[in-house]
Specification:
Order of helices and strands: EHEHEHEHHEEEHHHEEEEHEEEEEH
CATH architecture of the largest domain: Sandwich
Structural class: alpha+beta
Number of strands: 16
Protein name: Diacylglycerol kinase (ATP)
Strand order of the largest sheet: 6-5-16-13-8-9
Oligomer: single chain
Keywords: ATP-binding, Kinase, Lipid biosynthesis, Lipid metabolism, Magnesium, Metal-binding, Nucleotide-binding, Phospholipid biosynthesis, Phospholipid metabolism, Transferase
Number of domains: 2
GO molecular function, one term: metal ion binding
Number of helices: 10
Radius of gyration: 20 Å
CATH class of the largest domain: Mainly Beta
Family: Belongs to the diacylglycerol/lipid kinase family.
Helix content: 25-40%
Strand content: 25-35%
CATH topology of the largest domain: Tumour Suppressor Smad4
Cofactor: Mg(2+)
Shape: globular
Length: 341
């Protein structure tokens, strides 16, 4: 009996992370071959759905493993390419963007494609939850709505390209005075929330924009979203909540926050104002919308052991990211102090 030759398809974004993947493709392919995969590569193009369409093609062609190499946007596209299929290949990721929220959740080395590829050789896997927003529209990290989310669309595309979702948060201090509440009805498995909200988050992982305390107890495979509803638009109160986030995720017990675990969420605006939905940092349509958590939908290779600092290569982008995070925290404190005078 002839044994099945495992096949892997590497789908990589050549422009992510200062072209870091482009410089390491050959070595990554060698590593995958050493793990017993017959491996080939596809370089994405600027064409719409380039990564998504290739992921669908590779899955239908019977590839056993698809590796998404790039930022969170590339990973999102690849997931959207295979999530609707009945038979889905396993996935692995090689983070080559800046924020890399999904890589943080799976504990994959960031900024080092070689070390990230080696995680596949450990053969540690997680059946990951995936969010479904519309027919054939999926997300891997977070769905968001509310006036604050909509204001962040004004972030310049160049800044977003450089710093990912964290650019929204860095811009957030400037935008906070413009935040307003909107009337909304949210249905979930625990009941109904009806009232005013300035921010609505439905998180799958615990990492948003590099901050890992927004949904501190999020689990990757329990079939539940972490629904976070911020009920205030008062600037001083929002600043206080942000400080609680930065102080170990203590915001989850605050009376101005609804913090709920649920397998589905229905978001219905109760005014004539448009409510835009943000999926993994990109505009993803308008409410009303139903979000469903597809439990254990895609099997990902992950590093379930603790990663040592030696496995991380802190390049200039990563250092800049950390600097922005610190700057954001300091600006929040400064603005809070200024308003308190």
């Amino acid at each position: 009996m002839v044994s099945h030759q495992k096949r892997a398809r590497l789908i990589y974004n050549p422009t992510s992370g200062q072209e870091i993947m482009k410089k390491n493709v050959a070595e990554v392919l060698d590593i995958l071959e050493s793990y017993g995969y017959e491996t080939s590569a596809f370089q994405t193009t600027p064409a719409q759905n380039s990564a998504k369409d290739e992921a669908t093609r590779a899955a239908l062609a019977g590839f056993d493993l698809i590796i998404a190499a790039g930022g969170d946007g590339t990973i999102n596209e690849v997931v959207n390419g295979i999530a609707p299929l009945e038979k889905r290949p396993k996935m692995a990721i090689i983070p080559a963007g800046t924020t890399n929220d999904f890589a943080r959740a799976l504990k994959i080395p960031r900024g080092n494609p070689i070390e990230a590829a080696k995680i596949i050789g450990k053969n540690q896997r997680i059946k990951m939850d995936i969010g479904k927003a519309y027919d054939n529209t999926y997300f891997i990290n977070i769905a968001a709505a509310g006036s604050f989310t909509e204001l962040t669309y004004s972030v310049p595309s160049q800044l977003k390209t450089m710093f990912g979702y964290l650019a929204y948060l860095a811009k957030g201090v400037e935008l906070l005075p413009q935040v307003s509440k909107v009337p909304v009805r949210l249905r979930h498995e625990k009941g109904v929330f009806e009232g005013d909200a300035s921010m609505i988050f439905a998180a799958i992982t615990n990492s948003v924009g590099g901050f890992e305390q927004i949904a501190p107890d999020a689990k990757l495979d329990d079939g539940k979203f972490t629904l976070i509803v911020v009920k205030t638009a008062n600037l001083i109160e929002i600043l206080h909540l942000i400080r609680l986030v930065l102080d170990g995720g203590k915001h989850i017990n605050d009376k101005r926050v609804e913090y709920i675990k649920t397998s589905f969420i229905e978001i219905e605006p109760l005014s004539n104002e448009r409510m835009m939905i943000n999926l993994d940092g990109e505009y993803g349509g308008d409410a009303p919308i139903r979000l469903e958590n597809l439990k254990n939908h895609i099997t990902f290779f992950a590093n379930t052991d603790e990663i040592s600092d030696d496995a991380l290569m802190w390049d200039q982008e990563e250092l800049a990211l950390e600097a922005i995070a610190q700057k954001f925290a300091h600006e929040v404190e400064d603005l809070d102090a200024e308003l308190g005078e």
